[in-house]
Write a structure and sequence with these properties.
mainly alpha; Apoptosis Regulator Bcl-x; single chain; 11 helices; globular
Length: 186
């Protein structure tokens, strides 16, 4: 892996994934960091892992997006969901959950003619990762660590004990996030 891949900015990776996810559903969204991002193994790894993650937890993401939209989507509501995702600690699965949620919420906003929120989702996600997750990423090999983690799983989410519990951990975190949204609505 080239060293510059490990130094990709959070903004570049978030922008690339959100743009990719929106294009996959037929939406166009351009933001400058994606135009300046080199194609890399990090970006393709994030895309592949998020696609697998979203397919595994599609109904939870749809429900979370719907619940978020019932509240006025703002920084506090969005960040609360991200906080719930990492509440029990960080691992690569939860980092991927953050990206996946950003992509799913962006698509949901575009589908519901709330296009202006997509730029905010990018900003809120970048800010959250920079303040709450980036140190963990750096301590775990940086973005190169994510690629190595993925490659050790032979091109899919690993099926070892860490990943067997992943569904329960992420499912639980997504459930908590959904619960928090419903409570905040009341």
């Amino acid at each position: 892996m080239h060293e510059e891949e490990n130094s990709l900015s959070v903004s570049c990776i978030v922008s690339d994934y959100m743009s990719y996810r929106l294009q996959k559903d037929g939406f166009s969204w351009q933001v400058s960091p994606t135009r300046n991002c080199p194609n890399s193994r990090v970006l393709s790894t994030v895309r592949k892992l998020c696609a697998e993650f979203e397919s595994r937890y599609k109904s939870q993401f749809i429900e979370m997006c719907s619940s978020c939209s019932e509240n006025e989507l703002d920084s506090d509501v969005y960040t609360n969901v991200l906080e719930q995702i990492i509440e029990d600690g960080l691992h690569w699965g939860r980092v991927i959950a953050i990206f996946t949620y950003a992509g799913a919420m962006s698509v949901f906003c575009m589908q519901n003619n709330n296009h202006s929120k997509v730029d905010w989702i990018k900003e809120w996600t970048c800010s959250f990762i920079s303040s709450r997750v980036e140190n963990w990423i750096n301590e775990n090999g940086g973005w190169k660590g994510l690629v190595e983690f993925y490659e050790l799983g032979n091109g899919t989410l690993k099926q070892d004990t860490e990943w067997k519990g992943w569904g329960y951990l992420i499912g639980g975190a997504l459930g908590l996030a959904l619960g928090a949204l419903i409570v905040n609505k009341a």
